[in-house]
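Researcher: Next sequence.
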Amino acid sequence: MFIAKLFPKQNIRIVQKIVLLVNSIFILIVLFLPPYIFTYLSISNIITLLTLVMYVFYVFYKANVSHEFNNRYIAISLSLLILLVALQVLSFLNIYAVNKTILDLTIFSFVLSMSLIFASQFSDVFNSTVTLKDKAESQQYDLEIKNNEITASIQYAKQLQSTILPTKEEISKQFDNYFIYYQAKDIVSGDFYWMEEKDGLIHFAVADCTGHGVPGAMVSFVCSNVLSQIVIDENISSPEKILDRARELVIRRFSTSETSLNDGMDISIGFYDPNTKTLNWAGANNPLYIVRKQTSEIIEIKGNKQPIGRYAAEKKPFTLHQLIMEKGDRIYLFSDGYIDQFGGPKGKKFKTKQFKDLIVAMQQDPISEQEKLLEETFNNWKGDKFQIDDVSVCGLEF
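Model: Next structure:
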């Protein structure tokens, strides 16, 4: 067992089991049978002992040639073992009277050499552990540096993304009462909200681009710039025509001679004419909620069931919806991140009905305070679960 523990790779398990079995049998014979029987077995004991010694020599030899251990200590132990066996045989055969002190010293030296092998093994394991620890710490340090670099890059991307979003000052110039609840799943978002004023018409939108995080943010850059180009440079103002044109440009920009991406956006977009009090609106997959003044009923206008981007089905023109807005009327534009969030006591989605109930319940509060109510409800619903998507909800009061 000692040899097996010291040299596990060189040890032959079947031999180890046979030796253990034979030794167990001899021990039982000595303990439970008369002494004369044990005397008859003395020759077989010697043969067994010699066989065991030869096996130990074999294990030592294999350990020595494997170069896994300190060869110097192996050679010393092997020499001492040979000397010890020779002295024991000479003494047993009465060929030479071995001095007990010499025999004890030889045994002690052999045990000491084995201890040195153990110490050498321990030292090798310890040094390997230290090396692995240093390597792991070095890798962790490198990962931390790279992680910090990536995080810094994403934080800068967030600053860049903020340049395509209208500021509070810009929105306040067009609407006295409003809120925007904008919560990215990651540092940057695939959702964006947009506003442009052209020829007295106030254009606004909330869009949900393909993906989230950095990929979604990159798509949002393209889509936001497309909307501004259509309104400012191409002088297209009607929402359904903006969406028709945006589909063409988005498909073109995500298509090259080598690759063709299926990225795009779902969007709720409209413009308000303060002079005629008219709201013109169109949607790609996303709806519009309207709550008239002093009512608790949601009027839902559904968008066309097709995205801005590549679409397997036949592409159809988007539909225009026109409404006259009264002072105090409110509208809500949003992505699907709020509705699709898992949470609550059963870990289910928030869903559209509960979202509508929340919008109705908030009508007793000023619209400027509704962002806080939406945030508190969302966080309470989400609990300790992960946010699964970017969240955007925009409320405007006329």
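Model: The longest helix spans residues 100-162. The radius of gyration is 42 Å.
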